[in-house]
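Sat 14:20. Reprocessing the chain from the morning session after the first attempt stalled halfway. Input below, unchanged.
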Amino acid sequence: MIVQHFIGLKKNSGILVIFAFLIASCSSSVSQYQELVDKEMASEKRYDSILFGMKFGQTKKQFFERCWKLNKKGVIKQGPNNKFVEYRLPLKKDQNLKDAIIMLFYGIFDRNNTMTGMDLQFSYNAWSLWNENLQSSELVPSVKDSLMKWYPGNDFKLLKMPKDTNSVFVKVDGNRRILIKPIDDPRIVKARIDDLRYISEK
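Finished this time. Tokens:
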């Protein structure tokens, strides 16, 4: 009886150690994220540009006016279900047509219709469920490369966000935060650009 009780304690202790390790790892990752944000915000560097001349702080009306002008020039077009704006990334020299990438985007606005960020979605133009090379998991590196090219500075880091159990790719430069979200769709890679001056996560 005593031996069985002792074995039970050892098993429970092992589980508690593993559980404590997981909690510590999660807390450490979140702490790294918060340290990164605090450091970049303290630098007082400001990056307001988002895409195609659009900036943090513009109104929803200005967003629509800019999209209308770009649409008139043939740069962008109306996206699916009127929920996004569509832009086709230019092909690279060694890139096949089947590897062409479509980007959908739409502004994020607060209650005052001020643009505080932008939602982005990326997918291969020739995506099909049976083509393993065109799945969203294979697209992530290309999305990271494009975002690094458009927004030079710090690298992406895989970290946990406050109040979230999933790790995400995070890039923070001054007030600008870029997230590449966890894969939840075989076709689409979701990303988001935010102005941290408008965000409170505490």
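Residues 13-27 have pLDDT under 50 and may be disordered.
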